[in-house]
Amino acid sequence: xxxxxxxxxxxxxxxxxxxxxxxxxxxxMRVWVFDLEATGLDVTRExxxxxxxxxxxxxxxxxxxxxxxxxxxxxxxxxxxxxxELTGLSPEILKGAPLFPEAWSACVAAARDSQLWxxxxxxxxxxxxxxxxFVRHGLPVELPxxxxxxxxxxxxxxxxxxxxxxSALLRRFRISTEGLxxxxxxD
Length: 187
Fold this sequence. Notes:
Blueprint: E1 7-12, E2 15-19, E3 30-38, E4 48-57, E5 60-61, E6 67-70, H1 81-87, H2 91-94, H3 100-110, E7 116-119, H4 126-136, E8 146-148, H5 149-157, H6 166-172
Parallel strand pairs: 3-7, 7-8
Antiparallel strand pairs: 1-2, 3-4, 4-5, 4-6
């Protein structure tokens, strides 16, 4: 991946090294925190089913500017029962939602003026999934500057035992997920 704010070098399957990260005045930036849900975990063949994001500006979460969009994965795309139970998204719920190009365009418009996008495990999942969707739909592969919160947490908190998974970060900062659906892109 060619990236405007850092260098990513794959070490092996599923492992990568990040270097040359350059972010100045993060706290003064408008940041777009985003997430995707998909039909499964294989980024080469799965499809996006939900896109969500919310801006943070000067340390404030701008809840009134939150964005969430269901995405129709396309005709004939299957979603396993396990993924449906995990995400709450079924083919019936997604029917009639915009296809990926329209949904992505709406997300980019909602993220307007954001200088940096941040997401959890995005270098492993979301970015490759987005790149596959761009190719699948004949769109140019253009992404905004994106920072993986795993990389950010490692830089700020040090190397964890294992990795800075969502669960590890929730435990570290004592954040309750009561009432939230962990696999809903906005939650």
